[in-house]
Amino acid sequence: MKNKLIVVVGATGRQGQSVIKSLINKDYNIRALVRNAKRINEVLHDSPVEIFTGDLRSKDSLRNLYSNAYGLFFALPFSKESINFGKALLEAAKESNLEHIIYSSVGGVDRYSKVDHFCYKREIEEYLRKLGKLYTVLRPAGFMDGFANPKSIRLISGLLKLYLPESKKFQLISLRDIGKFAEIAISNPAHYIGKETEIAGDELTLNDVFEKIEQVKNIKMSPMKIPGFVKRILPRMMRQVFAFYAEDGWHADLKSLREENPELLSFEDWLNATALYAK
């Protein structure tokens, strides 16, 4: 598998950057689809990545994207327009010689329909399954990296507390591990092809989150006190996502995932590896 060419779409985003780093570490060749070549150079610096300039709004610009490529990894934004982006990518892939397509969707998309962008991602999944190409769908839980900024943690957790009882656990995954699971799926396709896999690295309550932050970073925090009426004035997407946390949440099989990826980061591991916190 090594030295095969993998196309990465969303290369300037956090998931795309993680995937590129994981694949480069395993000696894969990378072709990154970007609209702005300057932007990718700013993000990836001196990484050995082939730049392909194209636009997901223009099918013609994607015509040669998959030339000589073995695989595709793509992650898309939460907007409704992402449906068209995904279909444009996959239409271009239909006539290619791609052997493996990996889509980073979202956990819960198969069972929860009250979040708009879950519906968008589910539609892309369905389109991918009908394409006639070998595929893998990764469904990440919430991002540990969303807790990387101490200034925003109190606000986020305060909002979560409006929706979640103290005993409610929720799953999280590091961006690093999304990249790692993409690499594992590409390197071991027989185990992942034709499957949809929910991925996470830990399961915690809000109190667990704050205890780990204090234990590892010596930063004592508590959720911001937010009055209940705020629930009514939050943006639609935030209301939907927080309701998902409360009503359902992610259900990744952490034991099996850790067997597949022994270096899978727990929240504590991630805190220890993250320099954005000041001790």
Set down the secondary structure blueprint:
Layout: E1 5-9, H1 14-25, E2 29-34, H2 37-44, E3 49-53, E4 71-75, H3 82-94, E5 100-104, H4 116-129, E6 135-140, E7 142-143, H5 150-163, E8 170-173, H6 175-187, H7 189-192, E9 195-199, E10 202-204, H8 206-217, H9 230-233, H10 236-247, H11 254-260, H12 267-273
Parallel strand pairs: 1-2, 1-4, 2-3, 4-5, 5-6, 6-9, 7-8
Antiparallel strand pairs: 8-10
Helix pairs in contact: 1-6, 3-4, 8-12
Task: Provide a quick synopsis of the model.
The chain has 279 residues and is an alpha/beta fold. It has twelve helices and ten strands.
Q: Could you explain the architecture of this structure?
A:
By secondary structure, this protein is of the alpha/beta class. The protein has a domain at 4-144 and 171-201 and 250-264: Rossmann fold (3-Layer(aba) Sandwich). 43% of the residues lie in helices and 16% in strands. It has a 7-stranded parallel beta sheet with strand order 3-2-1-4-5-6-9, sandwiched between helices. It has a 3-stranded mixed beta sheet with strand order 7-8-10. Helix 3 packs parallel to helix 4 (116-129) and helix 8 packs parallel to helix 12 (267-273). The termini are far apart.
